[in-house]
Each structure stands twice: as structure tokens, then as C-alpha cells.
From TrEMBL:
SUPFAM superfamilies: P-loop containing nucleoside triphosphate hydrolases. The keyword ATP-binding applies. Keywords: ATP-binding, Nucleotide-binding, Transport. InterPro entries: AAA+_ATPase, ABC_AA/LPS_Transport, ABC_transporter-like_ATP-bd, ABC_transporter-like_CS, BCA_ABC_TP_C, P-loop_NTPase. This is Unannotated protein. GO terms for molecular function: ATP binding; ATP hydrolysis activity. One of its GO terms (cellular component) is plasma membrane. The keyword Nucleotide-binding applies. Transmembrane segments: none annotated. Residues 32-278 form the ABC transporter domain. CDD domains: ABC_Mj1267_LivG_branched. Pfam families: ABC_tran, BCA_ABC_TP_C.
Length: 300
């Protein structure tokens, strides 16, 4: 569990865009498309995204300085907040006005920057809440107790398999409150998978995670892609972004200011400006440096 051999360099997806790389560039197979999505809080325009497309079955990092509007954009896309204007679609279906619960059922699930694991529920109960079949519990149980029992066993088996994958199975009966910050992040990711999503949006999955768990979290994110899912994640750690992202989208002051493959985007002056203001001599790779990724042959 603890000994992680140097992880191999992940296989990056390439050629996902159409035409010249620039902010808002079209994708060959976008899973999510947003157009003119704008959210204002009083006089502050938190999000003002003209056009953005998220490539399917790839790992896209959404980066940008604090206050850039990343979390607000996540909230809008997943139905946890409503924009003042704009439209966006998932798998070609409009999501405008669709509630967070329905968005999740359609296959788009997100985790939160601050974990929402319910402290006074057990780890297993937290997992069960992630199941889309949980909603009808009372109705099912009252009319068809036998069928419900069968469904419940199915849900528990699925939960236990996921907990095993995330090394949390031994904690299944403990309160979520007893988990470390990193374990809660793992629990949140495991719970998100209960609904068998197609697009998983992770808001700062590494924040507050003990270095001992970061490698395992990284691998879990890479596994989502191998399992056919699409990942969009917010992250400040540029080492991690470089290591696992196929594509990077940069937000600043509510707008998408640049996008592209990680190596190229991080050399873009607009990106360096957005992050560093006048301190352009600093290497973006050292901004956080919370985790160290074994260097691949190609990376400098
Ligand atoms: N509910 C809210 N009410 C007022 N202002 C908000 C609210 N949520 C976010 N903001 C503001 O919107 C801007 C973008 O915030 P946020 O989306 O959290 O940025 P990021 O996640 O990129 O750090 C910030 O200036 C923040 O203070
Ligand atoms: Mg945020």
C-alpha cells in the first residue's frame, strides 16, 4: 500500500482540438460545451466564459489564480448555481436550469474544494448516498421489501468494491469525521464513482492531502481516464498538472485566457501574466511544488 514504485509517465492524449490552438478552440469530440456563461455577484463578474469545450476521455486541468472563477464555473456547470446568462450542454443535451441532482444522474458529477463528506455518517453510509438508486429508498422498501433488499445488497457490494480500490474498506464502519483530510478526499472521489459518471469534475483534489496519499490520488485520477471517463480538475500544483493533464485551460478574472497541451500552455505569456504579474522570472513549475513527480525523460 505504501511503497509506490516510481510511477510510469502517463500516456497523454493528443490531437483533441480542431485548428489553431487558442482560448475557446473547438474539440473533435467535446463532452461538454459552454457558451457565453456569465455569473455576476453584485458588481463583480466572477465568470464570463465566451466559449469552451472539454475533450472527451481525456484529463483536462482548469488552472488560474485564486479568485479566477474556477469554483464558480464548476458550480454553474453542475447545477449548484445559476448563471445570469449563457448556455452549456453535456453530451449534446442542454443543462441550463437542470438541477444538480439531475445533472449527476445524467453522468456529470463533481467533488468540492472543501470536502462534503458527512462527518456523522459512516464511511459506508456516505458511499450509499452517492448511489443514484438511493433516492427511491422509502418507496421501494415499503412496497417491495424483497426487491429493495436485493438492490441494497447490490449498492453495498458496489460501495465495498470502490472502498477497496481506494484503500478505505477497513474504515467502512467508522464515522467519516475520523478520516484524515486526504482520506476524505479519497472518500469523496469514491462516492462520486457510485453513480458511474461519464464526466468527473474535481475541485482541488490534492488540496490538504498528505504527501503520502498524493501519489495514490494521482493514480486514481489516471485510472478514471483508463476506465473511459473524462476528468476536469482544478489544481494549483503545476507539477501535477504537467504530469497528468492532457489539456490545460487557464482562467483569469472569470475568462478563459489560454488553453492547450500542458507544456505549451505554461510557456504562454498570458498564463505567466495571469499567475505571476510582474514576477515573470519564476518558473511556473515551482509555484507550489507540493509534490514531486519523478521526472520523465522528456520533461525538463
Ligand atoms: N457566493 C458568492 N458571493 C459573492 N462573491 C463570490 C461568491 N462566490 C465566489 N465569489 C467571488 O467570485 C470570484 C471567483 O471565485 P471562485 O470561483 O471561488 O474562484 P477560484 O475558485 O478560481 O479561486 C471571487 O472574487 C470570489 O470572491
Ligand atoms: Mg476555487
Amino acid at each position: 500500500m505504501s511503497s509506490n514504485p516510481a510511477s510510469p509517465t502517463p500516456v497523454k492524449s493528443t490531437g483533441m482540438h480542431v485548428g489553431t490552438i487558442r482560448a475557446g478552440v473547438a474539440k473533435k469530440d467535446p463532452i461538454l460545451i459552454a457558451d457565453g456563461v456569465r455569473r455576476q455577484f453584485g458588481g463583480l463578474v466572477a465568470v464570463d466564459v465566451e466559449h469552451v469545450e472539454i475533450p472527451r476521455n481525456a484529463i483536462t486541468a482548469l488552472i488560474g489564480p485564486n479568485g479566477a472563477g474556477k469554483t464558480t464555473f464548476f458550480n454553474l456547470l453542475t447545477g449548484f448555481d445559476q448563471p445570469n446568462e449563457g448556455k452549456w450542454s453535456f453530451n449534446g443535451k442542454s443543462l441550463a436550469g437542470v438541477s444538480a441532482y439531475k445533472v449527476a444522474r445524467m453522468g456529470l458529477i463533481r467533488t468540492f474544494q472543501l470536502t462534503k463528506a458527512l462527518s456523522l455518517l459512516s464511511v459506508m453510509d456516505n458511499m450509499k448516498l452517492g448511489s443514484p438508486d438511493q433516492k427511491g429508498e422509502k418507496l421501494w422498501a415499503s412496497f417491495f421489501p424483497v426487491l429493495w433488499k436485493k438492490k441494497e445488497i447490490e449498492i453495498e457490494t458496489q460501495a465495498l468494491n470502490l472502498l477497496k480500490r481506494f484503500n478505505l474498506d477497513t474504515k467502512q464502519s467508522e464515522y467519516a469525521a475520523s478520516l484524515s483530510g486526504g482520506q476524505r478526499k479519497l472518500l469523496e472521489m469514491a462516492r462520486a464513482l457510485m453513480s458511474k459518471p461519464e464526466l468527473v469534475m474535481l475541485d482541488e483534489p490534492m488540496a490538504g492531502v498528505n504527501p503520502a496519499l498524493t501519489q495514490s490520488l494521482l493514480e486514481h485520477i489516471l485510472n478514471l481516464k483508463s476506465a473511459g471517463m473524462t476528468v476536469l480538475f482544478v489544481e494549483h500544483d503545476m507539477h501535477m498538472v504537467r504530469h497528468i493533464a492532457d489539456w490545460v485551460i487557464v482562467m483569469a478574472e472569470g475568462k478563459v485566457v489560454a488553453e492547450g497541451p500542458p507544456g505549451e500552455v505554461m510557456k504562454n505569456p498570458a498564463v505567466i501574466d495571469a499567475y505571476l504579474g510582474s514576477h515573470q522570472e519564476i518558473d511556473l513549475g515551482t509555484i507550489t511544488g507540493r509534490i514531486s513527480i519523478p521526472k520523465s525523460g522528456k520533461e525538463k
